[in-house]
Write a structure and sequence with these properties.
This is Catechol 2,3-dioxygenase-like lactoylglutathione lyase family enzyme. Pfam families: Glyoxalase. It comes from Labrys wisconsinensis. By secondary structure, the protein is an alpha/beta fold. The protein has a single domain, classed as 2,3-Dihydroxybiphenyl 1,2-Dioxygenase, domain 1 (Roll). It contains three helices and eight strands, in the order E-H-E-H-E-E-E-H-E-E-E. The strands form two sheets. Strands 1-4-3-2 form a four-stranded mixed beta sheet. A hairpin with a 5-residue loop joins strand 7 and strand 8. The protein is globular, with a radius of gyration of 15 Å. The relative contact order is 0.22.
Length: about 130
């Protein structure tokens, strides 16, 4: 349903470094950077698979409250690697890798809070 999502962060350099590390195990990297001159005011960094930014962060007024974003992982080891990389990059554990059977029997996810406290999840729906 969604083509892409974007949201402002309180410190673009800090969040960029966090997401570079946290998203690498999922196969997502920086695909495009937009300068204030290009956008008419704010800077943006787009992450995704090669050639396709789906996940954007940028400058601007930070959000109030907590955003939840779930990102697709190709397999369970990628979920585990995301969680470890996000914690090593300064994220806060918000749910270790594991089955969430209350969603469905093969729902394998991990949750971290990013530098602004947003709940970022990696999830794999495939059987082990």
């Amino acid at each position: 349903m969604l083509d892409h999502i974007g949201f402002p962060v309180s410190d673009l350099a800090r969040s960029r470094a966090f997401y570079v590390a946290a998203l690498a195990p999922l196969g997502f990297g920086v695909q495009w950077e937009v300068t204030p001159e290009m956008s008419g005011g704010d800077s943006h960094v787009g992450f995704g698979p090669p050639g396709r930014p789906h996940f954007w962060i940028g400058t601007g007024r930070p959000l109030q409250g907590r955003l939840h974003v779930a990102l697709v992982a190709v397999d369970r080891p990628a979920v585990d690697a995301f969680h470890a990389a996000a914690l090593a990059a300064g994220g806060t554990d918000n749910g270790p890798p594991g089955i969430r059977a209350h969603y469905h029997p093969d729902y394998y996810g991990a949750f971290v809070l990013d530098p602004d406290g947003h709940n970022v999840e990696a999830v794999c729906h495939r059987p082990a």
